[in-house]
Design goal:
six-stranded antiparallel sheet, VC0802-like, binds aspartic acid, binds magnesium ion, Carbamate kinase, disordered C terminus, eight-stranded mixed sheet
């Protein structure tokens, strides 16, 4: 029997009514002859609420206990969904991440899946049951602790299960119709993409498009899993994420992403000699702080300023680490700012089309938007700008690359 792996996000199971609607959809898939494995997120804003709860009792909650707490959110939704399916008369069982053999490293709150041991899932499917799986959680290989996979981690649970079970497609059900050329809340004329390549999707997701956890895209590309991002409120085709692009090959730029979770740090007047950048960034890497943009500029003959960005959430940790290192290196000070955002364009066609960067900068210049930092790769260009200017910048760039809905084509819709 064909194995179908589906994932339902938090907004898709946000209320008892929605849980019932998802149950019907799953039962429908089952009754049309598929073996169904459905991965679910915590209901609505449960994870945020649990995090807020933790902060009320502790200023720095131990990560192990955070995982113990956060993993409960998904356990609520799997049990309720299984009950709703049971009510519809189909055999079903709910299972936690550890029960379905999601084996991770022991990096609590941002664990990485090392392997999947799908025997339990297979045997439940063989009994004719629908299997409901708690996303976002696993079991650490070395010490059998409950771990969580980082925000949005249910996507990766679903992709990893699809890979382990040899499913053709992993369906990610969400509250939007697919992957758009920009966030439709910012650009109402944004267009749904029929296809996007792994590389482009990985950039879009990493640069701020929250529709998929970047790690799930990486996992899918490594294991050749096709992802179908689609709405849980309609039966429309969504966006296929896969190796090759089939439909929209002629697009140089496929989308504009933006990210408002950005903080900038400047380490001033560090000595201009070998080993300085290594000292700073290895200290951050050791504490698992992800550094994004990096610029080094020479001011005087033997000193330089080192500027870099991290997520705003990582800023306090980063400053703690950097203060010590800066003193040790004899820097004259450390500055930081948070009122910043990053806008990016993504497209595999950029490498072979000159003038793409110029067109992006022109769009910003025409609106009088100042660019603070630029970074590029083969398939993306990012600009750091003032936070307030982000929506206007996204719209201007979207327009400059003609990404909007064509005449006669239906407008992008966001539900829920
Ligand atoms: N519930 C987790 C979160 O909110 C995981 C997920 O939804 O994928 O990040
Ligand atoms: Mg998500």
């Amino acid at each position: 029997m064909n194995i179908l792996v589906q994932k339902y996000g938090g907004s898709s199971v946000g209320t008892p009514e929605r849980i019932k609607a998802v149950a019907s959809r799953i039962v429908e898939s089952r009754r049309s002859g598929n073996s169904v494995v459905a991965v679910v997120s915590a209901m609505g804003d449960t994870t945020d609420e649990l995090i807020a709860l933790a902060r009320q009792v502790s200023s720095k909650p131990p990560k192990r206990e955070m995982d113990m707490l956060l993993s409960t959110g998904e356990q609520i939704s799997i049990a309720l969904l299984a009950m709703a399916i049971h009510e519809l008369g189909e055999p079903v069982i709910s299972l936690t991440g550890p029960q379905v053999g999601i084996i991770t490293d022991n990096a609590h709150t941002r664990a990485k899946i090392l392997r999947v041991e799908p025997d339990r899932v297979r045997s439940e499917l063989a009994k004719g049951r629908i299997v409901i799986v708690a996303g976002f959680q696993g079991l650490s290989r070395d010490d059998a602790e409950i771990t969580t996979l980082g925000r949005g981690g249910s996507d990766t649970t679903a992709v990893a299960l699809a890979a382990a079970l040899g499913a053709d497609v992993c369906e990610i059900y969400t509250d939007v119709d697919g992957v758009f050329t920009a966030d439709p809340r910012v650009v109402p004329t944004a267009r749904k993409l029929a296809d996007i390549s792994y590389g482009e999707m990985l950039e879009m997701a990493s640069l701020g498009a929250v529709v998929l956890q970047p790690r799930s895209v990486e996992y899918a590309s490594q294991h050749g899993v096709v992802i179908h991002v689609r709405s849980s409120f309609s039966s429309n085709e969504g966006t296929y994420v896969r190796g090759e692009k089939t439909v929209e090959r002629d697009m140089v730029v496929v989308g504009v992403a933006h990210d408002t979770n950005v903080a900038k740090i400047v380490v001033m007047d560090v000595p201009d000699r070998p080993g300085v950048a290594h000292r700073i960034f290895s200290a951050l890497a050791a504490e698992q702080v992800n550094v994004d943009m990096i610029v080094q500029s020479t001011k005087q003959e033997n000193t330089t300023d080192l500027l870099f960005t991290v997520t705003r959430d990582d800023l306090p940790r980063t400053l703690e680490i950097i203060d010590g290192v800066a003193k040790e290196l004899g820097a004259s000070g450390v500055l930081h700012t948070t009122g910043l955002g990053k806008v990016s364009i993504v497209g595999a066609g950029m490498v072979s089309n000159p003038g793409v960067a110029a067109r992006m900068f022109e769009a910003l210049a025409q609106r009088g938007i100042n660019i603070q930092v630029i970074s590029t790769s083969e398939i993306k260009i990012s600009c750091l700008i003032d936070l307030d200017a982000v929506p206007e910048a996204v719209r201007a760039i979207h327009e400059a690359f003609n990404l909007s809905v064509d005449e006669g084509q239906s407008q992008a819709k966001v539900a829920g």
